[in-house]
Amino acid sequence: MLESGCKAVKEGMLEKRSDGLLQLWKKKRCILTEEGLLLIPPKHPPPPQQQQQPELHFSNMKTVDCVERKGKYVYFTVVMAEGKEIDFRCAQEQGWNAAITLQMVQYKNRQAILAVRSTRQKQQHLAAPHGSRLRGASNSPQPQPAAAAAAALPPSVPRSISNSLFMNLGKDPLVRWDF
């Protein structure tokens, strides 16, 4: 468990392309969590808890693009919501790009489900008369049209995720992704 309370899903070394003029590859010790990717310089001791570790949070990530497999490396780019692109590379067998993508999709799914639940609760609260409910009225939530649920999502949730998510509403509480 990390200080933030997130469980480490994967740990290891990644190489990140620097932003400088020469764009050198710099090794980073990376910790993939359920919330994002922590980047730590490899030669530094663990920082004190007060110091903030650089983190690429999934709420700010737009996509992970696999650019190419060349030699022993796989090169991939993390595209942030504001358009910034961060290039990484790792040995092909490490599978960092797939692990990051999977955790990002799971994070976005959790956020979408929370948004739908929140919208349903607000709608039930507004629809229920203040005071008492009718006898025999069901306490179960009424089905919500998928389009209205998708519109209630924050703009950071890609539409492809929200469309797939809402096709399964009411069928199974777990959202499944078929790749």
TrEMBL record:
CDD domains for this protein: PH (cd00821)
Keyword list, A-Z: Cytoplasm
Region annotation Disordered: where it falls in the sequence: 120-152
GO biological process: glycoprotein biosynthetic process; positive regulation of apoptotic process
Signal peptide positions on this chain: none
An example Gene Ontology CC term for this record: nucleolus
InterPro entries, per the entry: PH-like_dom_sf (IPR011993), PH_domain (IPR001849), PHLA1/2/3 (IPR042832)
Positions of the PH domain: 8-107
Major location category of this protein: cytoplasm
Record-level Gene Ontology MF annotations: phosphatidylinositol phosphate binding
Protein's name according to its UniProt entry: Pleckstrin homology like domain family A member 1
Organism, scientific name: Taeniopygia guttata (Zebra finch)
Lineage, opening ranks: Eukaryota, Metazoa, Chordata, Craniata, Vertebrata
